[in-house]
């Protein structure tokens, strides 16, 4: 699928299984398998199709008729817009609060905080597209509040989503602004706090309140409604906490 959307499909053998389509902000990709596994303890026969992407691009797809049932956004802006335009049938609720981190594959002096971006040997800095990805917007806001944006804006390389910003941070950039949740992926065990990564001072950016809505396509879907309720459950909240999110 174009626009850097990633499609995941969880299939099961039940002949009578229902299928639900979930549009998910890319930063949730690191926790999504744990969430699916927990959901299936109570709903083992439900097929779940996940589309990952930036919140802005997923919203555009929903507005253009994509048959998604539940939308997990990286901020409240997009589900609020969908609710106001009747694409969503539930009022947006916060399911978790995300945080921003900096990552480098090389050893860095993160005691400098965000000012590390001005180091001469950091020539390329990856961020998600601030026009469509809330984590990119938060990164730009943090840089501007730290009075660093104008100094390093020519270093910035833009990814389409939080997950692609992570990929760029590892392969194409000297440092990247990523979703903190990515650091809890098993694939990230090689990277060490204070050496390869550090959290961005939360006082530098607006809290990333992530919102969920049930979409109009799911109006008659009991399975979709069950998944929506699950995302707001204590079981899901425990998983989000495990992956570095704060609770609303």
Report what the structure shows.
The protein is an alpha/beta fold and 248 residues long. The protein folds into 2 domains: 126 residues, D-Maltodextrin-Binding Protein, domain 2, CATH 3.40.190; 107 residues, Periplasmic binding protein-like II (D-Maltodextrin-Binding Protein, domain 2, 3-Layer(aba) Sandwich). It contains 8 helices and 11 strands. Strand 2, helix 1 and strand 3 form a beta-alpha-beta unit. The radius of gyration is 18 Å and the shape is globular.
Write the layout of secondary structure elements.
Elements (H helix, E strand, L loop, with lengths): L5 E5 L8 E7 L3 H11 L7 E7 L1 H9 L6 E3 L4 H8 L8 E6 L1 E4 L21 E4 L5 H12 L3 H4 L3 E4 L2 H10 L3 E5 L17 E3 L8 E7 L7 H10 L2 H9 L6
Helix pairs in contact: 1-8
Low confidence ranges:
9-16
Q: Could you state the CATH homologous superfamily of the largest domain? A: Periplasmic binding protein-like II
Globally, the shape reads globular
Q: Kindly report the spatial arrangement of strands forming the biggest sheet.
A: 1-3-2-4-11-5
CATH class of the largest domain: Alpha Beta
What would you call the structural class?
alpha/beta
Largest sheet composition: 6 strands, mixed
Q: Treating each run of at least 4 consecutive H or I residues as one helix, how many helices? A: 8
Number of domains: 2
**CATH topology name of the largest domain:** D-Maltodextrin-Binding Protein, domain 2
Supply the CATH architecture of the largest domain: 3-Layer(aba) Sandwich
- What's the order of the H and E elements? EEHEHEHEEEHHEHEEEHH
How far apart the termini lie comes to: 33 Å
| Percent helix | 25-40%
Can you count the beta strands?
11
